[in-house]
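Now for one specimen:
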Amino acid sequence: MLPGVLDIGSDSAQLQVFEARPGAPPLPTHAVKEPTLLGEAFGPDGAVDPAGVDRVAEAVNHAMDAARRLGVQQLYVFTTSAVRDAANRDLILDRLEAGAGVRPQYLSGEDEARLIYLAVHQWYGWSAGRLLILDIGGGSMEIVLGRDAEPELAVSLPLGAGRLTRLFLPDDPPGRDQLAALRRHVNATLREVADRLLWEGVPERAIGTSKTFRQLARLSGAPAQRKGPFVRRSVTARDLEAWIPRLAALRARDRAKLQGGRCERESSCTTCRRSTSRSISRCARSTARPTARTRRAAGTSRW
């Protein structure tokens, strides 16, 4: 069977096609990525501007054409916070349904966190013990903790890379005051969750599932994506502390040239990603866990 997942996010519409066989893990066979750049398309009223709606419609049309060409037998189409939180969400969904013949479902933040947990838990298995999972997208950040089939804690916070860039980092490179304001906001937003994680104790594994962590790990010397999903990749809090000042001093075009630094939105997504990583390292340290492991889990379409 050849199922596929189309994830319509703030940076891109990503189609992941998998080979699924009974008793075997789903293994990715094809990936198609089309830019949406929705993070740059929000107006003061919280609506996506017409150019942004056109981009997401074109991206979904191309992804759907690719799914048909590849022979995808069952396709799951969904969107996360970028469209879910847009003031003109229904207009966007109507446009996609009329143009591409599919009406995407949108996940709540809690559902998104829960599905990330289920994919990671299935990948590592029951012997993995208690898992702390962190995922940073364009509009939101998910934090999940659990050991059993269902997570004990699953929260989604408005701390996505694109969202924070729009709110706090208008300059390139960002100024010191802008970075300080961003840190204060992120720390305040994370405080309650970090206290809960500290109370829960140290997890057996801390895992980052998003592209943000993959790129930070790549900067820190982790193997490239072409090495496959079974290669261990890691990034430590010490790595983040070393890289953050260096990244903060660079312009977006210079950051994009770094190993693992390629991004559809060089000026905003990369800038906010490394600023947000500082706060995430603090969240991980609140559990006394020095390392966040990053691995591409087949079935976690955002990775």
Remarks:
- Residues 110-294 form a domain with the Nucleotidyltransferase; domain 5 fold (CATH 3.30.420.150).
